[in-house]
């Protein structure tokens, strides 16, 4: 929840102010006109190693051992705020006995307290060290996903080269056939990474187009047509692309005689709600075996199935061929 949203909610008279304050994840203070603390959230107590008794009713500059008596903070609260309704990401440096030196980004906004009409000041505090750590974690996740996708793309390109038949073709004909499949792969990647609405079976055929070009490696059943919301289409496209990539690297699409069949049916879940049950079945490829450890691709498939589609996925490494069973709620018309 950002400061503008908090301000909007606090202006609604029937909302309990303290309840809203408590939901904010970053440290937050509500100050009276004389800068006495009248409210704080749990995040403030945790971050700055303090408690309610040591905070509520205490002037801001006297909190702790005077750690908040900071020149930059005084400038913000005594000179900037009186002439501005709000200030965002004002940098302040401070040192705290129990948590050490901190670079903080402080945002402040004046408002009228909905319970008593008193003029108050909302102050949110973002620990720059924590923010940078979170950004570093996000960056590492993105780098990991990029590395995974690049390796997958190279593996799929090699598989396309192997599967593009050379018999009876000149070098130019082979080049044109291979480039055609590579362009289809680019379109499939675009479909699986964009939030656009789609229908089954169109989505399946779009993602699997690189492997349908030769006409025999992949079969898509004439199953019921279902319209998917953009978020569903993107998540299902990512799952299908990941399954196809694994099949091209290790499974049925890695050998000329391998085949993949994709079909689905409409049914109801255990609670009687409508659902979609999609089956990915491989035949004719190398004998599958369960991975010794769960890789990035498998984690992505499970995350997309369970948390983004709200369904389940079963991965069966049967001796006759790998099978994936995906079930998820059917969008209501």
UniProtKB/TrEMBL annotation:
UniProtKB keywords: ATP-binding, Kinase, Nucleotide-binding, Phosphoprotein, Transferase
Catalysed conversion reaction: ATP + protein L-histidine = ADP + protein N-phospho-L-histidine
Domain of life of the organism encoding this protein: Bacteria
Residue stretches making up the Signal transduction histidine kinase HWE region domain: 145-224
Key word Phosphoprotein present: yes
EC number: 2.7.13.3
Repressor found in the keyword field: no
A GO term for molecular function: ATP binding
Pfam families associated with the record: HWE_HK, PAS_4
Protein name: histidine kinase
Enzyme class: transferase
Species assigned in the record: Cereibacter azotoformans
